[in-house]
Amino acid sequence: MSSALNGQKTFITGAASGIGRATAELAARKGAELVLTDVNASGLAEVAASITASGGKVLMFRAFDITDYETVVAFGKQVHDAHGSLDIVMNVAGISAWGTVENLEHKHWRSMIDVNLMGPIHIIEVFIPPMIAAKRGGHLVNVSSAAGLLALPWHAAYSASKFGLRGLSEVLRFDLKRHHIKVHLVVPGAVKTPLVETVEIAGVDRADPKIQKYVNLFVKAAITPEQAAAKIVEGIEKNRFMVYTSRDIEFGYWWARKFAAPYEFVMQQANNKFSSVLPD
After folding, report:
1. Are 24 and 46 in contact (CB under 8 A)?
2. pLDDT (tens digit, 9 = 90+) per residue, 70-115?
3. Quick check: is 1 in a domain?
4. 195 is a domain residue
């Protein structure tokens, strides 16, 4: 196979459903050797069995909560002891809650930050340093959102986490370049996943016909998880930093940003300057 994923040890979070599952299945078909996790134990086991039955290779899978740092550390040790450092790490797992600031409760803010930002940070802390030490390069994929680029209504708590993941990715894009680890920031718009039907909208009744109207419009505009997965893999294979899953988000962000080229040049030069003082 000519794919950049062929033979690559690839870790995917959120692999039991949605974009995570679709990406795991596509990566397997591309020849990746998979390490999978999700909080849904039965769903994860079903995905691992399905991939294996289809001829894919699953090195390990384990159900756990990525917000639990000690559990991530323990799993990382098991993975590294058994298989060494990884080649590709994909932070796909995430949750969502919408609402205006007067309706959002502390639990909403806390859960968005814990799962969507601290979860990926835990994965990066545990799995990226061994990749650096191995000196083989690799790929880090962080799934943010259109809400990490644009000020979408009712998305304050969700955007706080997704803008955070975007900022983290922007820094690591330059920071990891000297280690030949490429960073990919995925910014999906509407995707038809189970999250669409379960997302909590604080302060409103989802059964309200007005709310259902907006949910239905979202579903009509949504792409499939398989389409999103194809864009993610294409982003890896073509070494793209920003990975759009649909043209509407790409167009919207094009309007929102300015002076991208000078910004990228200055940030890379600044990062190079800071990196020059590090010990070899």
Report:
1. no
2. 999 999 999 999 999 999 999 999 999 988 898 899 999 999 999 9
3. no
4. yes
Q: Given the residues 158, 214, 253, 263, select the one marked as catalytic.
A: 158
Round to whole Å and give the CA distance between 124 and 126: 5
With 0.70 as the threshold, say if the pTM is over it: yes
- First-residue to last-residue Cα distance in the chain: 36
- Total length of the chain: 280
Q: Is 158 a catalytic residue?
A: yes
**CATH code of the domain covering residue 236:** 3.40.50.720
